[in-house]
Design goal:
α26 packs antiparallel against α27. The N and C termini lie far apart (about 95 Å). Helices cover about 70% and strands about 0% of the residues. It is elongated, with a radius of gyration of 30 Å. By secondary structure, it is an all-alpha fold. The relative contact order is 0.04. It has 28 helices and no strands.
Length: about 550
Amino acid sequence: MASLKDCQMADVLVELRTASVSLSKRGLVNSAKWASEQACSFAEMVDSPLTGPPMERHDVAFWKDWDKYHMAKSYFDLKEFKRAAHFFQQCQSEEGKFMRLYSLYMAGEKSKDVPVLSKTGAVRPVNPEVAFIRDELSQMAKQSQLDGYCSYLYGTVLKESSLPGMAVGHLVDAVNKEPLLWAAWQMLASLMSSVSEADKLSLPAHWMCDFFNIELHVANKSKALLELCASLCQDVPELASNSYVNTALAMAHYDARDFAQCSTIFNEIRQKDPCQLDFVDTYSNMLYVNGMEGELSRLAHHCVLVDKYRSETCFVIANYYSMRHDHAKATAYFQRALKLDRTYISAWTLLGHEFLEQKNVPAAIECYHTATALSPRDYRAWYGLGQTYEVLQLQNFSLYYYTKAHQLKPDDPRMLVAVGDCYNDLHRPEYAKKCFQRAVNCSKSETTSALYQLAKLHEHQEEIEQAAHCYMQLISQHEGGTLSVDSDVHDAYTFMAGYHSKKKNYDRVAEYAQRCLMFDETREAGRLFLQDVAQAREQDRSRRQSVGSP
């Protein structure tokens, strides 16, 4: 498999420039944008930036179609897709055949005019043109008439028809015929259930596989993404300033909950391209998690100034209102984002969170199910379903959905704590203890809840030494300043005071009793412990005096 490190950057640049023109001609604007961005990135490092793409060589059929093709393409650019398809039908060239079917597909996408929430459940809108396009492309495939672009479109409609296995085959065919067709690589990555699954594919020996590997790790939220990007930048120093690679690095730091480094990279990208909105939803999530309301407000204002009708802008504004606990406005803006992009998985998930905050459980369930239908690997939606059924006190359902989330994020302590809580509620303490212990082992910084729950379980089962060990870890975190929440530590001080009281270690009892006085919930218990210590010490004093008297 060829790699970027084995290629001449000048040759890569020519390929990207050629692809940018070809993709633009076929209306694949997102792929053309990606190719152009990579070309600009590489052009800064190439000695001969004036090296342009070779002149395109069209067949006779395209020259005959020239006028009709460009007229129909102008209608396509104006989003008059049905009108464009009608005139593309008169074209005989390969470009014209693709554009006719692609125009029909885009017309079907435009006609998906359904409410954000249906009354009967989570319904995914159907493109009415998919069946016709699939049948026509199927006939072309049987006659071996599919070029790379038509293979990509065939894979797209097969995926839309819930035939992912067949879609993968045609997408692989597409990237072999047109290696620079970025949309095909993206869709292929979205259909892989794991990074290792891609090893079975017959991919081209092309440097685009390096970018596909990054996309694959991003789609699967792989922990190896950081190492992959670092290795690639070491092999190809030109990628160190590449916007796509840096965005992937920021996403990797976000998934690893390294918010400081994530923020640094995002800010560097925004300084270079202040009007870019492609990643601002993730950036706003990071600001939300860190409680940075001022920064989130400034980001929302900036997005509105750039393009207030982008789905990402509505998403950022919704996050801002959610942080201010204005859930009605947050809901409205998430719904606006979904009207602009019905496949916006993060918006579906966070809209579910907003409905759950407003106690609208049926609507929350519907949103989460829609998110999981769009992307079964979205652990947040599965986790949201677990929370929703926990509210309904349907613990078996909740356990099922939390387990799904845990399978997608096996090293996330939050998932393990949620599964452990369900086992605890279902009176299965042994399973609960295993989950809490694994959560403690997974993370050194987010173990508060797991430690507390584990200590409580040991305490209820009268496993005093194990409970004392857990409570001491909790106290160590509190005194070391690493405890994220202080709400449970007062129970730890109370338990340890009682624990040492039974061992008659009154100095330690007094120490923990003094700490109990710091909290309203345990102030009275602390006073009682101090009284017991005073009485015990008085009794010891009296006993020593009686023994020493003649």
